[in-house]
Amino acid sequence: MKFNTKTIHGGQEHDKAYGAVMPPIYQTSTYAQSTPGGHKGYEYSRTHNPTRNALENAFASIENGQYGLAFGSGLAAIDAVIKLLKPGDEVISTNDLYGGTYRLFTKVFEDFGIKFHFIGMENADKVESFVNENTKLIWAETPTNPMMNIIDIRALSKVAKKHNLLLGVDNTFATPYLQRPLDLGADIVMHSATKYLGGHSDVVIGALVVKDEELAERLYFIQNASGAICGPQDSFLVLRGIKTLHVRMQRHCENGKAVAEYLENHPKIEKVYWPGFESHPNHDVAKKQMDDFGGMISFVTKGNDYDEAIRIVENLKIFTLAESLGGVESLAGHPASMTHASIPKEEREKTGVLDSLIRLSVGIEDASDLIADLEQAIG
């Protein structure tokens, strides 16, 4: 089954009761049993829910995995992955990652004795130099948030397999429409499905997908034991969103290219970060592991002027100044004061997250309207 068909039919079946084409919203916490332990596959909705299971099957299908898990948020999904570890274990992570992930690692799990190394991952040899007997997990984002760095998943996979480590990849920015990390050797794929998979800025959900049965069972146990699951209404909304993922991503990519090229040629813009440019440091890797380059773009104004960046985002009219990304509508953000404010300024600036950096999530509106909006806001 091709990807465009999988988004609609992958892992799905018609409702057995009445033949409903869309999985019904099973808004229930518990299920009747004919005798203690005698049920129809469902006993309590923290453990299993038919609507959530349909979503988890869809996650697995579009990522070419075997097992999908749905959580209450992307951070809840990452939390479950780190709970695979124990005190004394170490994690190698990219130094350019979502601020909430950094906060979870440093403010929660470091207190439980897990050590994190935040490094540039563009060179797999550098990553391998940080591996020691305590290393258990490599955690990567690609493209990274917000600097759009590209990490070679296949190269990281070779390092992970050589040292018997788990490799987890946050695939939120790319989505499985553009990139399928499990096919490139990753063990775990994570999504903030709040973003492109849901696609309409109306739900908060996280996802994990794996191929290995034993790993899946460990994660299912954590999901049930910790209870950070999503509800059936939210599951239904993301299932609906996935059905149009392929057509939305096509327009996100088209519009992203148009906006990136406009910004690249603007006299007031110092630098544009978008992996589709041949000048991007890892463009060749992006071409190899991605089918297109997406709708996420970051840029800095000349002079690294904080006030100028704030003026621009406040003057946008079609782009909405807001947290998050991946919806049908275009959003603009100022990472230093919004999504990455939890990362200390000194650490942010080491990776290029300057006070003048603006991040765009380019939506599916008419590209000419988006460019006109940027033109009037930048001036």
Give an account of the 3D structure:
With 379 residues, this protein is of the alpha/beta class. It has 2 domains: 3-242, 3-Layer(aba) Sandwich (Aspartate Aminotransferase, domain 2), CATH 3.40.640.10; 245-378, Aspartate Aminotransferase, domain 1 (Alpha-Beta Complex). Helix content is 37%, strand content 15%. It contains 14 helices and 12 strands. A 7-stranded mixed beta sheet has the order 1-7-6-5-4-2-3, with helices on both faces. Helix 12 crosses helix 14 (367-378). The longest helix is centred in the C-terminal third of the chain and has 20 residues, at 245-264. The termini are far apart.
Structural class by secondary-structure content: alpha/beta
Our Rg estimate from Cα atoms comes to: 21 Å
Tally of strands: 12
- The CATH homologous superfamily of the largest domain is called Type I PLP-dependent aspartate aminotransferase-like (Major domain)
Q: Major β-sheet, in short? A: 7 strands, mixed
Key features of this structure:
Aspartate Aminotransferase, domain 2, 5-stranded mixed beta sheet, alpha/beta, 14 helices, Aspartate Aminotransferase, domain 1, 7-stranded mixed beta sheet, single chain, 379 residues
Sequence-ordered SSE layout with sheet pairings:
Elements: H1 3-9, H2 50-62, E1 67-71, H3 74-82, E2 90-94, H4 99-108, E3 115-119, H5 124-129, E4 135-141, H6 153-162, E5 166-170, H7 175-178, E6 188-192, E7 206-210, H8 213-226, H9 232-242, H10 245-264, E8 269-273, H11 283-289, E9 296-301, H12 306-315, E10 320-321, E11 331-333, H13 345-350, E12 357-361, H14 367-378
Parallel strand pairs: 2-3, 2-4, 4-5, 5-6, 10-11
Antiparallel strand pairs: 1-7, 6-7, 8-9, 9-12, 11-12
